[in-house]
Specification:
Distance between the termini: 17 Å
Order of helices and strands: HEHEHEHHEHEH
Shape: globular
Oligomer: single chain
Radius of gyration: 15 Å
Number of strands: 5
């Protein structure tokens, strides 16, 4: 919850007079902790809050709260959004999505050095290469050391920072760490 609030403060501070106009994509659970915090604390509009998740219970909870639930993984969603075609892209465009998100939070529950981690790395690279994060937008990624042996403390964080910096450099995307 503390990270949700910290990110919500950054979203609110960056929105200026556009509060409620930001397009947000976040990984979410059925509890909707991130969704509720961003809506309540950052003034994000539920109608512009996108949650990709193949779990139908999560999708039902997001829809019931007024959000946009897409029953797919981030990997499938980002691939389609990068191609700028397909039913997911069309669904977001029909909602008025401008082609990039003002805030993206990929709250991963694992490392980058696993099979799933390779997909997570591809998500980071695709989001940056395809311009899925609006200029000046917030791009947050969290990982954990759960699920993989780490050669030293915080190796997962170092790997994430290295991969994100390399992906940004390849696409000439400017990143400014918040902390």
């Amino acid at each position: 919850v503390a990270v949700n609030r910290w990110l919500a403060r950054h979203i609110a501070a960056s929105s200026g007079d556009g509060a409620g106009q930001q397009w947000v994509l976040a990984l979410e659970s059925e509890a909707l902790t991130t969704f509720r915090t961003f809506v309540d604390d950052a003034g994000c509009s539920p109608a512009r809050f996108v949650v990709p998740n193949p779990d139908e219970d999560v999708c039902a909870a997001v829809r019931a709260a007024g959000g946009i639930a897409l029953p797919v993984t981030t990997h499938a969603l980002f691939a389609e959004l990068a191609a700028k075609e397909g039913p997911l892209h069309a669904a977001l465009a029909a909602e008025g999505w401008p082609g990039a998100f003002d805030a993206v939070w990929l709250d991963y529950c694992g490392t980058l050095d696993s099979k799933a981690g390779k997909l997570r790395k591809r998500d980071v690279a695709t989001a940056l290469a395809a311009g899925l994060v609006a200029p000046g937008g917030l791009f947050a990624v969290t990982v954990s050391e759960r699920g993989g042996a780490q050669p030293y403390r915080h190796a997962a964080v170092d790997e994430l920072l290295e991969h994100t910096a390399a992906s940004a450099a390849e696409t000439r995307t400017k990143l400014a760490p918040l902390g």
